Amino acid sequence: MTNDNGITYEMVFYDSGFFGYGPEGDFVQWSLAHFAPIAVTIVAIILTWRWRERIRAWKHEETARFWFVFVMIMVGMSYYWRLLYVGPQDVTSHTFMDCLPLQVCEWTLMICSFMMLKKSPLLFDITYFLTMCFSLLPLVFPAVISNAGPTYYRYYQFWGVHLLPIYGMFYMMFVHKMRPHPRGIVWAMGMLLLLAIPALYLNQAFEKANYLYLKPSAYEMISFLPNNLFALIALYLVVLPLIMGLDWLVWKFFFKKLVT
Asked: N or C: which end of the chain has fewer CB within 10 A?
């Protein structure tokens, strides 16, 4: 590559090994590698609920919670550190503009981190509805790690970004008795609309950009979604509030009974 001063240099990425990429299909949907991280998280949530009073009274609870938040932030940031070290899978077709932090799960992780630090009821509202809606979908359709199975770091980073906020939300619900409010649906949808503004522009401006997955045909696992942009947006505007409404009912008729 040549810079503006006419100096030619070579950009080297280390795309092999643990931090690199595997062959397409290295991760197999509905396999043990798919369900094992989910099962571990479910067990952790159940144990947290069972030991909630003991954890609540533990003198090091705040310190442990802060360390958990630190791990969450590091897991989120490591995605971008890995890109600097490894580079995108196809260096010639990707740019910085299709790797910006504009995905919902990344924002959910950040909001959950601040919520756990501040014990903010408003941020808990947003975290609850985002995790119970958006963070669950990638667990069923982990499309973006089709080339990264358990022998690659990206596999663990993906599950960490999506599962740690879910566990963090339940931790705050059971240990600190935090409760969601229906207003969280409005705040969550408002955040999504704010993210959609730059996402729509960048998806049109850069071929490889796929923020908010508004180009569903790019991933086979979610190819069932409408391929028309306007139909997809309309589907989101109708379905997402309905899912969040169901999440509220799940809280009211199930989770609420577990918070004591």
From this structure: N
Whole-angstrom Cα distance, residue 34 to residue 140? 9
The percent of residues in the chain predicted with pLDDT above 90, rounded, is 48
The phi and psi torsions of 228 (rounded to 5 degrees) equal -90, 130
DSSP state of 10: -
Q: What mean pLDDT is predicted for residues 177-185?
A: 93
Q: Are 37 and 27 in contact (CB under 8 A)?
A: no
What is the C-alpha separation between 260 and 58, in angstroms, rounded? 17
Q: How confident is the model at residue 48 (pLDDT cuts 50, 70, 90)?
A: very high
Burial of 143-159, coded b for 16+ CB within 10 Å and e otherwise, reads bbbbbbbeebbbbbbbb
Distance CA 235, CA 214 (A): 11
Structure tokens at 67: 């360390």
Please name the residues in contact with 244: beta carbons below 8 A apart, sequence gap of 6 or more: 129, 132, 133, 184, 185, 188, 189
Alpha-carbon distance 136 to 121, whole Å?
A: 21
Contacts of 209 (CB under 8 A, 6+ apart): 97, 98, 202, 203
Residue 220: what pLDDT?
A: 52
pTM: 0.87
Q: Is 227 helix (H, G, I), strand (E, B) or coil?
A: coil
Percentage above 70 pLDDT, the chain: 86
How many whole angstroms separate alpha carbon 188 and alpha carbon 181?
A: 12
Closest CA relative to residue 105, chosen from 85, 83, 127, 120: 127
Q: Where are the alpha helices (DSSP H) in the chain?
A: 32-50, 52-57, 61-86, 104-118, 121-130, 137-140, 153-175, 183-205, 229-250, 256-258
